């Protein structure tokens, strides 16, 4: 029986996302969520999240691309990537942003994050990853970080998965080992967010599951005001799958034990 953790990204980005995640956590369909602490609704959302009677892990979703306010240091993803790989990103701004997002998490929840990952996987980018590991070391962080080094491959996702792995996953994993910070063994959840069967994708991931497989997801409730979200339709499909009997059946069929990654 393989032990697997589903982690929902983007908690507190928008109400329909947070509501979906809270529902799935309560039903124990997922066992981790990563939080965007710069969101204007973070304080209220965090109170609800931390009041849940659950063993789920709560993490920091490090953000450098989603603008919530004028105080946030963010860039469009292409510009951020260019700055990271040319070494032109401001180390001071990166360090200060990490510290601010961390403080917003800790001051609101009363504790450190159980784990750290990155919105659009920015945590593994050059400059950002160096600043992150130095910061985590200073904080004596005992949790885990998301690693994309060993992704689960499927026929329709192989190209995107390989490209994301090339964007710093190997070096990031090596730095985890250097700083003695825990990381997941394998990773899944990457796909193109199109209308392909999300159930089939999960069946393919679960068929290859090994212990400490971390599967990223992005569920949301249907919302008429989310037309500006390019992946909203995919978010809704994901929620409908996780909320279905089909998901439970797929886990049983592939002999999957769901739980928080830190407990695996």
Automatic annotation (TrEMBL):
Q: What is the required cofactor set for this protein?
A: Mg(2+)
Identify the domain of life.
Bacteria
Q: Which SUPFAM superfamilies does the record match to this protein?
A: Glycoside hydrolase/deacetylase (SSF88713)
> Gene3D superfamilies in the record, alphabetically?
Glycoside hydrolase/deacetylase
Which molecular function term from Gene Ontology is one that the record holds? hydrolase activity
Residues in the signal sequence = none
Protein name in UniProt: ChbG/HpnK family deacetylase
Ordered alphabetically, the record's keywords are: Carbohydrate metabolism, Hydrolase, Magnesium, Metal-binding
Which is an annotated Pfam family here? YdjC
Could you tell me the Gene Ontology terms of the biological process aspect for this record? carbohydrate metabolic process
Per the UniProt record, the source organism is Acinetobacter soli
Which PANTHER family does this chain map to?
Answer: CARBOHYDRATE DEACETYLASE, YDJC DEACETYLASE FAMILY MEMBER
